[in-house]
C-alpha cells in the first residue's frame, strides 16, 4: 500500500524493542490491530526473544527494514530518535507514517519538519512506563488506560492523524492531541521533575547511609514509593532532561523554592505557616485522587 489508510491493513515497523517498543508490539499483536509487525533492534538476544514471544513477525538489526513498513514507530531514547529520523526518512516508502514515542516533543517535531515530503510525520508520547527497562519488562497491558499524546505537525494529514489515533486506541490508550511546546511544559512538571526529585532523594539518603548503616533497613513504603523513579533507565532520562532543559530547570527551581519555604518555616518554628503548607498540599492531593477515581 502506498499510504496506510487502515491500520488493520498496515505493516508496522517498531525501531527499538525495549519497554515501550516491546510493549507496543505485544499489545498490537494481542489485539490483531495490524497486518504485520516488524522489529528493529541491534541486540540479537532481544530479536530472538521478540520472535519467540510472537511480538513480531520479523526482526532485524538493520534500520533498512523500515522500507517495508507503512507505519514506522521510533521507540528509542530521544537523542537516538533525532539521529535516526533523517535515515528513516530517506528509506521510508511513499506515504509512510513516521511516529515516535519520545518523552519530549518540541525537539522531535522540529526535526520531523525536515523529513522528506513523501512521508507523513507525527509526534507521540504515551503517558505510561515503568522504572524497569528492556524487552524483559515489556507488557501488553502497559498502555491500557493511559493518555496517548499526539503532536501532529502542520503538514500531518488528517488520515495520518486518524491512523495514529487508531494505533493508540488499539492498545487500550486514550489519544489526546496537544501542541508540542505545551506538552513539554506539562511533562516537565508531572513526569520529569518527579524523576529528578527521586534521584536527589536517593543521593541524599545514600549520603546519610554512609555514616549510619540503619538508614536502608529502616526504609519503608514511603521511602520506597518516593524514590522508586530513581531506578529509571539512565540513558532515557539523560536524553529527556537534556532535550527539555528550560521547562525542567524552571520546574526544579520552583520546587526548590517550595522546599526552602518548608525549611524556613521549620527553622522559624512557624507551626501555623507550616500547617497551612501541609494542609494545602494534602487538600490538593486528595482532590486529585478523587478526580482520578471519578474519571475511571
Structure description:
The chain has 296 residues and is an alpha/beta fold. The protein has two domains: 7-178, Rossmann fold; 183-295, 6-phosphogluconate dehydrogenase C-terminal fold (Orthogonal Bundle). 52% of the residues lie in helices and 13% in strands. The protein contains eleven helices and eight strands. It has helices at residues 19-31, 44-52, 78-91, 106-112, 158-170, 180-209, 215-218, 221-227, 234-243, 245-267, 271-295, and strands at residues 11-15, 36-40, 58-60, 71-74, 97-100, 120-126, 147-152, 174-177. Strands 3-2-1-4-5-6-7-8 form an eight-stranded mixed beta sheet, sandwiched between helices. Helix 3 packs parallel to helix 4 (106-112). The longest helix is centred in the middle third of the chain and has 30 residues, at 180-209. It is elongated and about 70 Å long. It starts with 10 loop residues before the first strand and ends with a helix. The mean pLDDT is 94.
Order of helices and strands: EHEHEEHEHEEHEHHHHHH
CATH architecture of the largest domain: 3-Layer(aba) Sandwich
Helix content: 40-55%
Strand order, sheet with most strands? 3-2-1-4-5-6-7-8
Q: What is the CA-based Rg, rounded?
A: 21 Å
Strand percentage, roughly? 5-15%
Give the number of helices.
Answer: 11
- CATH level 3 topology of the largest domain: Rossmann fold
Assigned CATH superfamily of the largest domain: NAD(P)-binding Rossmann-like Domain
**Class from helix and strand fractions:** alpha/beta
What's the CATH C level of the largest domain? Answer: Alpha Beta
Total domains, how many? 2
